[in-house]
Amino acid sequence: MFGIGMQELVIVLVIALIVFGPGKLPDMGSSIGKAIKDFKKSMAEPEEKPKELPEDKKLEGKKE
């Protein structure tokens, strides 16, 4: 896993626990999990074609 062994992972988690405290750690974990989930979801979705603008919007864009 990213070249990190079990000892290094435990050290990182202990430092995070000391810095952020036990109250914020679960919130941070869930927000990171949601971010990863959203990123994977956006990468899996096919790109949508841009929607065409209504005719009146097209005319407003062509102001001379």
Structural overview:
The structure is a single chain. The chain has helices at residues 6-44, 55-61. It has 64 residues and is mainly alpha-helical. The longest helix has 39 residues, at 6-44. The termini are far apart. 0% of the residues are buried. The model has no long low-confidence stretch (mean pLDDT 79).
Q: In brief, what are we looking at here?
A:
This protein is mostly helical. The protein has a domain at 1-40. Helix content is 72%, strand content 0%.
Question: Layout of SSEs?
Answer:
Blueprint: H1 6-44, H2 55-61
For the structure shown, list the relevant keywords.
mainly alpha, 64 residues, 0% strand, elongated
**Given the C-alpha coordinates, what overall shape results?**
elongated
Largest sheet: none
Order of helices and strands: HH
User: What is the helix fraction of residues, given as a range?
Assistant: over 70%
Assembly state: single chain
The low-pLDDT segments are none
Helix count equals: 2
Strand residue percentage:
under 5%
Instruction: Give the integer mean of the pLDDT values.
Output: 79
β-strand number: 0
Radius of gyration: 23 Å
N-to-C CA distance: 58 Å
Structural class: mainly alpha
